[in-house]
């Protein structure tokens, strides 16, 4: 779901090392102009990532709420996103997926038990917590609102996993921990502060 150069600046070097190791690498991303600028000269193939057009009615309060306003909160948008990712994975049949700010891809990977490693800044890889913490610490947001966002998103994820044969989550943050997540930031710059048990 990210844009600009930050995500590719992290993932392209990983792709180059995987290529050297003999793996076939394919990117899926929403900004095809950026893909043509960065990936084409590097000789890295790419496909469009599934996305829906959503106009958020309010600012999200935590990562669960980001999922809801990015498509999960609308039944058909969520179905469309998941069908898109499932079709993409059916086409590519990846052995493993490196995911930088693509939570719907994480859900699709979990449903089919494909290893998926979440990488990214603190913002795109939320901490192991329940509920997921606020992304608006300058506002007085109640624990009840955070828990409500988590509960709604968790129910949607688990409904999809149940229908598609994946293991249900007990809390939403487990979506990012099926394989150990990799943070590409410093503790001092992490949006959520220093984490005790994460790399």
Compact summary:
By secondary structure, the chain is mostly helical. The protein is built from 6 helices and 5 strands, in the order αβαβααβαβαβ. It has helices at 6-20, 32-42, 63-72, 75-92, 103-111, 143-164; strands at residues 27-29, 46-48, 97-100, 116-120, 182-183.
Tally of contiguous helical segments:
6
Number of strands: 5
Structural class: mainly alpha
Roughly how much helix do the residues carry, as a percent range? 40-55%
* Strand order within the widest beta sheet: 3-4-5
N-end to C-end Cα span: 22 Å
Radius of gyration equals 17 Å
Low-confidence stretches: none
Order of helices and strands: HEHEHHEHEHE
Sheet with the most strands, sense and barrel status: 3 strands, parallel
Report the portion of residues in β strands.
5-15%
Quaternary structure annotation: single chain
Describe this structure in words.
With 199 residues, this protein is mainly α. The protein has one domain. Helix content is 43%, strand content 9%. The chain is built from six helices and five strands; from the N terminus they run H-E-H-E-H-H-E-H-E-H-E. The protein has a three-stranded parallel sheet, sandwiched between helices. It has a two-stranded parallel ribbon with strand order 1-2. The protein is globular and about 50 Å long. 34% of the residues are buried. The model has no long low-confidence stretch (mean pLDDT 91).
């Amino acid at each position: 779901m990210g844009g600009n150069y930050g995500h590719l600046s992290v993932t392209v070097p990983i792709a180059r090392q995987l290529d050297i190791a003999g793996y076939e690498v394919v990117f899926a991303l929403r900004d095809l102009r950026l893909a043509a600028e960065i990936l084409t000269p590097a000789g890295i193939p790419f496909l469009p990532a599934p996305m829906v057009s959503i106009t958020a009615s309010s600012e999200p309060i935590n990562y669960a709420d980001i999922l809801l306003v990015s498509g999960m909160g609308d039944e058909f948008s969520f179905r469309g996103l998941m069908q898109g990712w499932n079709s993409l994975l059916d086409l590519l049949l990846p052995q493993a997926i490196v995911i930088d700010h693509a939570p719907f891809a994480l859900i699709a990977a979990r449903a089919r038990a494909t290893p998926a490693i979440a990488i990214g800044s603190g913002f795109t890889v939320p901490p192991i917590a329940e509920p997921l913490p606020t992304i608006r610490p300058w506002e007085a947001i109640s624990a009840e609102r955070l828990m409500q966002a988590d509960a709604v998103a968790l129910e949607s994820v688990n409904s999809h996993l149940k229908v598609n044969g994946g293991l249900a989550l007990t809390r939403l943050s487990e979506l990012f921990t099926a394989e150990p997540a990799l943070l590409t930031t410093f503790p001092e710059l992490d949006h959520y502060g220093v984490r005790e048990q994460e790399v």
